[in-house]
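Entry type: protein chain
Record version: 2
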Amino acid sequence: MVAKISAYEESRRKRMEENKKRMEALNLHKLSRALKISTPTKSSPMKRSKPRVVEKQVVVVRRSSRVANKPAPFFKEVVLDRVVIPRRISKARDLSNRVYATDEARAKAMEKAEKLQSDLGSDYPIFIKSMLQSHVTGGFWLGLPVDFCRRNLPRRDDVITLIDEEADEYQVIYLARKNGLSGGWKGFAVAHGLLDGDAVVFQLIKPTACKVFAYSHFSFLPCNLSSIDT
């Protein structure tokens, strides 16, 4: 085993000497040294970005042939005075003359109205509304029964006619989404002297027309809305 390794090393040494002689004959060592000295390492310079130049072009504005030969218009700045809308100052409501119905009076008025409702029958849709302060002296908004509105009244905002004893007609605005009477109801309530505690019967005789009957909580007799024979 030792003899084989020695023979291999001897053969390798001879080959290395032969290669060295060949390199010396070709002067490769001198050439490699000369190249190292003559070509020093240089760092590659950074590329400089060129500034972007935006070219401006003159464009001829297109104008109508009617005004092509006329001079360009001149606009003058005008300072306008600010328009101030005066605020509407609402007067405080006088609540000293309000009449408040007792529970007993309200119940008796409802009893009379329910008797009238029974006498009128069911040929036409009908309902009773007991008046509150917000209906007759405050905001003058009259909310109607939701079931009655959904079954009988228009699905969109409309104008409903209220008919009293003199056959006078009052136009009121019906708000479908809110199920109630708004504009025009105040005029009707004030004209007929409706008060807190009164019981009002609404009978729908047409899709947008109602006959109105009312019982006052004072005398328990019909108000001046419709003549009723009882």
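Comment: DSSP finds six helices and seven strands in the chain.
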